[in-house]
């Protein structure tokens, strides 16, 4: 009777009901098998996700490097914009530089002619210096003669 009270059913009732419960359990076995296969798939997916998340810390570090590179690129972008703004002036300077060999060639010719004129001028100056020296030496006797002319003051002595 104690067993009857504990479960509310007699032992005989339980034995008779056992094949029905066993048959009910056997009917849900395929469904349990499908759920078990799904659980194995979920477990495999979770293991793959765990492996994939191991790559996240290096990716975070690489993103920090990308952020640093971005700030460097921003500075470079500003410098490139400055160069871009200066391009029209640089193109104009390049045009002038392209004409520089012709200009320098013309200057070489003019400098050559100027050098020849300077040579002629130096020759003329040498001749002039000789003439001035000849005049000075020729004036010496004349100035001594003039100093002897009556009425000449003594404080105005000519230099020789």
Shape: rod-shaped
The average pLDDT score comes to 80
How many β-strand runs?
A: 0
Ends distance: 172 Å
The main sheet comes to: none
Number of helices: 3
How would you portray this structure in words?
By secondary structure, the protein is mostly helical. The protein has a domain of 54 residues. The chain is built from three helices and no strands. It is rod-shaped.
Compact overview of the structure:
The protein is an all-alpha fold. The protein is 88% helix and 0% strand. The chain is rod-shaped and about 185 Å long.
Key descriptive features of the protein:
disordered N terminus, mainly alpha, 0% strand
Which secondary structure elements does this structure contain, and how are they paired or packed?
Blueprint lengths: L1 H6 L3 H43 L2 H92 L13
């Amino acid at each position: 009777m104690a067993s009857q009270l504990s479960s509310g059913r007699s032992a005989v009732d339980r034995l008779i009901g056992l094949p029905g419960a066993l048959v009910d359990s056997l009917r849900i076995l395929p469904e349990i098998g499908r759920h078990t296969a799904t659980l194995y798939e979920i477990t495999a997916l979770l293991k793959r996700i765990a492996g994939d998340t191991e790559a996240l810390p290096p990716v975070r570090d690489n993103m920090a490097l990308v952020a640093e590179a971005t700030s460097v690129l921003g500075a470079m972008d500003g410098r490139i914009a400055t160069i871009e703004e200066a391009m029209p002036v640089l193109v104009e300077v390049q045009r002038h530089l392209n004409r520089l060999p012709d200009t320098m060639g013309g200057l070489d010719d003019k400098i050559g002619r100027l050098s020849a004129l300077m040579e002629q001028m130096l020759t003329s100056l040498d001749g002039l210096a000789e003439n001035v020296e000849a005049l000075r030496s020729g004036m010496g006797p004349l100035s001594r003669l003039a100093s002897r002319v009556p009425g000449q003051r003594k404080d105005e002595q000519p230099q020789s």
